[in-house]
Input
Amino acid sequence: MTGMGPEQVARRRAVEALRSGVPSWDAVSALGSGQSEAEDRFTALLDGAQESRSGGLLLGAGFGAGKSHVLMHLSALALDRGFAVSSVVVSKETPLHDPAKVLRAAVDTLTGPGRIGGVLADAVAALDPDSAGYAELRRWVGSSAAGLDERFAATLFLHERLQGGDAPEAQDVLDAAVRFWAGEPLRVPDLHRALKGVGAGGQFAFPPVPVRELARQRTRFLSRLLRAAGYAGWVVLFDEVELIGRYSLLQRGRSYAEVARWSGAAGEDAAAPLATVFALTDDFEAAVLVGKDDRHQVPNKMRDKQTPEWAETAALAEKGIRALQRDLLLLSAPDADELDRAYRIVKQLHASAYDWSPPDVAGLERLGATRMRQYVRAWINAWDLVRLDPAYVPDTEVLDVSSRYDEDQALEQG
Output
């Protein structure tokens, strides 16, 4: 790429991303989403989060239909509105049924307007104990309605007392508090010692808390900490959610419960400045909720455990399942106008990326089942070949890849 300016480099990156079907900021910026209803609903979701009303959006589309592209576009919209944004890809390493691992993934991928890494550390550094936002955070953390373990009130108290201090010991305590908020363990003896050092020994009690519950509390806390630091709120985008269909039955149940919690369907903490989006394949209901009869088998199997915890999880799983059945917004297939618009954009992008004048190419036959990614790749491949051999007549064949929902024991060990 020697001799090319930054704009041409960006355009080539966009073409390469579109060719490979991997979303990138350059490609998303060039094409947009073409999903006006999803954008409208997401905008309403941001409005709610900005007014401290949590909520979620469930998006469905076929394999390779551009779900990740749309999520990246929604991320850009949220960043433009001043939100902090996390992107969580459900995987073996980040199983949806494990709230602690999901929370860590959300923290690790935090981005902000003009920021890619270090967002949480910067947010903590920006906290001003004399601001109205901090006062609201302090009030909420100390209220019984928050339902938080006292570790949060204690660490926030230490932050207020020690922020700006020059002593190495003070910075060590502050770093430990931030790591705790981000998902790492915090040794209770160290916490007691730090509190005693600022004259607050014995003011807080720290009974054992399950790791899962502590992760959920961190989620509620971080959304408000980010607000106190100046962000409009926190947006968490979940991709490849259909992978939960390959978990064992009980882990699928836990995952449905987490969908209910994160999306707001559980009715928990409705006042959090938090917005979530889940993207999954559009055949999930038929293949898993109906095909595996998860609608009935999952909650029944959980209740067979005959413990209060499993009974509660079963009730939440039912809410998550109902949300997936009732609230899933299917991404629209591109119509003629959208295809024409995309064709013009991609043609101009290819022209400026490779400094030539691409001829018109036929691409794929316009059928309702053909996905935007397939059209775009066909156009780009055709122009690539014609640029090398102007006499060549491209012929593209499309092969569909179906989703798999067979159980995979390896995913249980994530």
